[in-house]
Amino acid sequence: MARAGLSPELVVTAAAELADEIGFENLTIGVVARRFGVREPSLYSHIRNANDLRVRVAARALGELADRVAEALAGRAGREALLAFAAAYRDYAKSHPGRFAAARMSFPLDSPAADAARRNSDLNRALLRGYALGEPAETDAVRLLGATILGFVTLEAGGSYQHHPRPAEDSWNAAIEALDVALRNWPAA
């Protein structure tokens, strides 16, 4: 029987908050149960297992990220859209590090997380319409965007840029400007 006051939504919300606080890699059913002051078995009427919980947090994160990116892209194209797109990703990663890590986990292709991931992919392609690349260049550009933005944000979160006097912000701006140049001057097939 489900514990009064708990619901799948509340459990996932708490798990997402905990992921940000302690790191997604440290998220367990036990930690979530302690947040509610209950024993682990009390959560199993709301989630199937630890993997189900993690996939639900990933779906939440990917949905939140897509909402931010969609808002950032609204009414923008080209360089302006790229700047807003990149800022939305970076800001989300900084404000929700555990959820951002969750968004990068592997999950079943028939899960709600996969649906949210497809929405993010569609937003990547919406951004690239402003550069009129066509296929296969668009797919290559999606991968370049991911490698650059995800790579930078992940390295920055891990402290990789703290050892040099040049501010990470300056390198970020240079990287995004370089992406814009690359996208505007994409090589012909």
TrEMBL record:
Keywords: DNA-binding, Transcription, Transcription regulation. It comes from the Bacteria. Pfam families: TetR_C_33. Residues 28-47 bind DNA. This is WHG domain-containing protein. Residues 5-65 form the HTH tetR-type domain. Signal peptide: none annotated.
